[in-house]
Design goal:
Blueprint: H1 4-17, E1 21-28, H2 38-52, H3 56-67, E2 71-78, H4 81-85, H5 94-107, E3 111-118, H6 127-139, E4 144-152, E5 156-158, H7 159-175, H8 182-185, E6 187-191, E7 212-218, H9 221-231, H10 236-265, E8 269-276, H11 286-293, H12 303-321, E9 330-331, H13 339-346, H14 352-358, E10 366-372, H15 377-394, E11 398-405, E12 413-415, E13 422-424, H16 434-437, E14 442-443
Parallel strand pairs: 1-2, 2-3, 3-4, 4-6, 7-8, 8-9, 10-11
Antiparallel strand pairs: 1-7, 4-5, 5-14, 6-11, 12-13
Helix pairs in contact: 2-5, 3-10, 5-6, 6-7, 7-15, 9-10, 9-11, 10-12
């Protein structure tokens, strides 16, 4: 049980250390919206989402007021749209994306995720249509987010899908070039995607989930940073213990908010995702945590080791605090959303290759990274393939959310505002991987996938 002392301690974290509930995300199954008429499907999607999530924003605001805990975003995730659209004979699923956007606007949420496809082992009916619809869908909507799972430890890497996604990411950036290429910022490519992720852009409502569920995403890099700073000089195992205890307290707050919201909305409580998700605000940075432990600048030698310790300690603390820890729980390392990461890029300490190495030990992967606008689609695909390989071999979720900065070169910066921050354009290798990407087929699953 959570007592008044816990609440007061949490409020101190909120006031001084940027602690917040990053999101309450309602997952909604759309399987009962299937029809052979895409317009009928659109109507059913709009009706179900607006009915189920009618009180989501209001409930979140009430909880904020009562407990004094900021809930930054209220979001919705839905069944992968490729599955819903497959029953139709439509050549484009853009109307379904627009239905999602209308429903999100009506409900007043910040984002809706699930314009998605799961193609790790091949393409079912609807998958390729969904993928080809992504650029227009994201260019003509404001609140819709998209994801495609191209690999898994059990299936290997679908190289045909990887090639397609490089092209789709580039086209999406081109169609939104007048908006700082933001379309690509709402699109993520996964390996080992999870079904209960409350964070965008990768959230979708898995087919193994109940009809409607409430998931909570908690954040708190500033709290962890402050706790380490207060501890002063101590051994690294003591630092790990401090992080674990801090993660425990943060998770209890997420459990409280999720339980209250679940009860009031009349939907099952799903999971608490304890991910240290940074913001552009000073003092709310994962990079600064790594520097507080002992790095002159994030990205230098030692970065990966400290990040591994941080990620592990966060998970251990969260598991002790709740029986419902899930999602992607750990530490995120988006560049544009973390002022310390941005600083490290400007200092020349952090490069794309180092970020890739860091993704082997933390949650998700290469996130919110801007690259030169003339980067070929095959190079983007090769970056995706590398990141997918890390996820497949290490049995973990990895992802790529990369933004070709159309019309921009190294040294320029994209400005998104809000939680998305700003992204300095980072260098990529100039040598081509086109022959590899264009081979197609599927990279086989690793030997250790044969666990049964």
């Amino acid at each position: 049980m959570i007592n008044s002392f816990d609440i007061m301690e949490t409020i101190k974290m909120i006031e001084d250390e940027h602690l917040d509930i990053r999101t309450i995300t309602m997952g909604i199954s759309l399987l009962d919206c299937i029809s052979d008429d895409i317009h009928a499907v659109s109507d059913k999607i709009y009706e179900k989402i607006t009915r189920k999530a009618e009180h989501l924003v209001k409930t979140g605001e009430q909880i904020e007021t009562e407990l004094g805990i900021p809930i930054i975003h209220k979001r919705i995730s839905v069944t992968p749209i490729s599955m819903i659209g497959a029953a139709t004979n439509a050549a484009s699923y853009v109307p379904l994306a627009q239905a999602l956007n209308r429903a999100a606007e009506t409900c007043g949420v910040n984002f809706v995720g699930g314009f998605s496809a799961l193609v790790q082992k091949g393409f079912a009916k609807g998958d390729e249509i969904l993928i080809q619809s992504i650029p227009e869908a994201l260019a003509t909507t404001d609140l819709v987010c998209s994801s495609v799972n191209v690999a898994s430890t059990k299936a290997g890497i679908n190289l045909d899908a990887v090639r397609m996604m490089g092209e789709v990411i580039r086209k999406t950036a081109e169609l939104t070039a007048d908006q700082q290429c933001i379309g690509a910022g709402k699109l993520v490519v996964f390996a080992n995607a999870v079904e209960d992720n409350p964070f965008m852009a990768g959230a979708f409502h898995g087919v193994g989930e109940s009809d409607c569920v409430l998931n909570v995403g908690v954040s708190g890099p500033g709290v962890v940073h402050s706790a380490i700073r207060r501890a002063g000089d101590c051994s690294i195992n003591e630092v790990a213990d401090i992080i674990k205890k801090t993660a425990f307290k943060i998770t209890r707050m997420g459990q409280l908010v999720g339980s209250i919201a679940s009860e009031r909305l009349g939907v099952p409580f799903g999971i608490v995702d304890l991910s240290l998700a940074p913001t552009p605000a000073v003092g709310d940075s994962v990079a600064r945590i790594l520097e507080e432990v002992g790095l002159e600048c994030c990205g230098t030698h030692g970065t990966t080791a400290i990040l591994a310790m941080l990620n592990d300690a966060v998970k251990k603390g969260g598991v002790m605090a709740s029986a419902s820890v899930g999602g992607l729980s750990g530490a995120f390392i988006p560049v544009s959303e973390d002022e310390g990461m941005i600083h490290a890029v400007h200092e020349g300490a952090l490069h794309l290759d180092k970020l890739e190495a860091m993704t082997a030990v933390c949650s998700v992967g290469l996130d919110m990274i801007a690259i030169p606008g003339d980067t070929p689609a095959e190079t983007i695909s090769a970056i995706i393939a590398d990141e997918a390989a890390i996820g497949v071999v290490n049995c973990k979720t990895t992802a790529v959310r990369i933004i070709p900065a159309i019309g921009h070169q190294i040294g320029d910066e994209l400005e998104f505002g809000g939680l998305l921050g700003s992204a300095p354009v980072m260098d990529v290798h100039p040598f081509s991987a086109a022959k590899f990407i264009n081979r197609g087929g599927r990279i086989p699953a690793p030997m250790h996938s044969l666990k049964n």
